[in-house]
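Field reference: sequence -> structure
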Amino acid sequence: MFVAQLSADANTNLQILVNLSEGKEGGSLELGRLVDPLSFTGLESIRTTERLNQARTVFGAPAVRLEDLATVINLGRFGNDFRFPKQPNAIFIPLIGISDVVESVEDLNIKPQNYAQVAIDPMRSNARFVAQFLNSEFGKEIRELKKSGTVIPKLNKQTLKDLRVFIPDLQTQKMMLEIEASIAAEQNTLLGLQNELGGFHRELWANPQSAPTVSQRLAALSGHLSGSLKQHASESLDQWFETLPFPIASILRVWQATPSQDFKTKHEHLLHFFEGTAEFVSVILLSAFSSNEALFAPHKQKITESMQKQNLSFQRATFGTWKFVVEYLGKQTRELLSGDKDARAICADIFSDPSLALPEALARKELAVTLSTTNKMRNDWSGHGGVVGQEEAQLRNEQLIGEVQKLRDAIADTWATAQLIHALHCRPRRGLFENEVAVLMGSNSEFLKETRSMATWLDVERLYLCNKDSGRALKLLPLVQVGPSPQSAKNACYFFNRLERDGAARFVSYHFIDKPELTGQFNDAMEAIKLLTET
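Structure field:
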């Protein structure tokens, strides 16, 4: 049987029809596979099998069925008197939901009847290693795929046995667990320092008379934090900047290049960074949901009604507009991710990300909280009519740096795999589309060029988000634009700002000071605003 995934792209669908008529497989799963109809359970199972084959190379070991690793598998039972028997080297796997696999009965997060106790053969693996693997993003995906049931998807004993786990040799496992323990120890040290600093803050504001004492203790702590450590933290943050997509990395580059004592300008650049980030994330979320008309229609109505009540609009977009979109569509994304297999498949499809890493990152509540906090900071500070002094500007800059660190923690390594790309040209080749693309990552406006074999023929006038390990790409709404700016050959990024009364669209740049605004008949952008507002 020939199976493929139809798309909204006509070129992709034509290639699927060619592959079907010729009875051949495509260069990627989306373009077609020949399968046994009796064993076919869906594209997701094929996609996971292909990912397992890729993971085998990364781990340097084949996937092992959990049954082959286990010496005993005990399912939980109903009743207050039930107790799991004591087993050495055991883990407890939740049969429903996606909570963590744990190593102790005391750590169970749901009722015992919803767990399975699995004792691991110590000659094959350490139970902690198996738990860590099953708690990884890939491990959660494997667990989710094996669940069955329409009301509450659930693992049973047979599907539990068939879970695939990648187990390197014992020496490699031991080394990885030792490194994991070292990471945890350093995290505890940092947490202790954070708690100590929090104590200073509380003591200072609870008793102003303690200011001299708090100052002395703070100076002593600061002395322990050597200059090289502080420099390392700064360099680490700088390196993280370069992993971000160009539209937001370029703003941080301008902040970085501003003289160190010009705190007024520096904190204003950071406010622009958060506003730009809010819009960039909103564009991704809106692009994903609007790619499925049936899914987006009811949400578009709710978004319009809610924004009208808050005096917000896409026609005159503000930081508050984009913050609201991130909050609302972030919540809808979380609901898809926590739903059944079909809901998760829809989520993977609209974001063009089979791994679900991108939607999971953009839907995190911590991201929305950071954008809400910085939006409030901006509103509070813009309402302050007086001249901002040096000390106040420095405090604002430090507060915003703290929010940058929170943002970094919230999105983690999302942009290590998801990349912003711009197509240069394309040619069909061996059942795939070879797209020559510019990779728009980091703050350098001289973009690297790569060839990507994909299931989609990319439009050279649009930006896309693409998972490096996927042959698919999410076409972004043209509300963020990157390209050579007028009067300059230098690449610049512009964010949609508003529609003018004469119908022209206004875009602003937060990093390109030579031409900070563009106004004109950007037809694609105006069509995008109509798409988001007309019901």
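Note: The chain has a mean pLDDT of 88.
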